Amino acid sequence: MTETFVTTTRPLPSSILHNGTEVRRQHTRAAARKLAGFLRRKIRRINRKATEVAQDMPQVQGGH
Question: Per-residue b/e over 21-44, b at no fewer than 16 CB within 10 Å?
Fold first, then answer.
């Protein structure tokens, strides 16, 4: 399984930095899931708009 890491310019809170490795992993996994959900919703929204536009195209072209 390939792991991807998201880096930020903001420093991590000291509570995360001073916790154990497993806790940091949990925070990283949670952040990755949150990011994946955000991207999934974003892509779904874009696909819906593209589908609407594609469905409207033949009607516009057929009117000429």
Answer: eeeeeeeeeeeeeeeeeeeeeeee
How many domains does the chain divide into? 1
Closest C-alpha among 32, 34, 40, 37 to residue 7: 32
Amino acid (1-letter code) at residue 64: H
The domain of 23 spans 16-62
Per-residue pLDDT tens for 4-52? Answer: 666 666 766 666 556 688 888 888 999 999 999 999 999 999 999 988 8
In a domain, 37, yes or no: yes
Residue 30 placed within a domain: yes
| 1 is a domain residue | no
Alpha helices in 1-64 (DSSP H): 14-17, 21-62
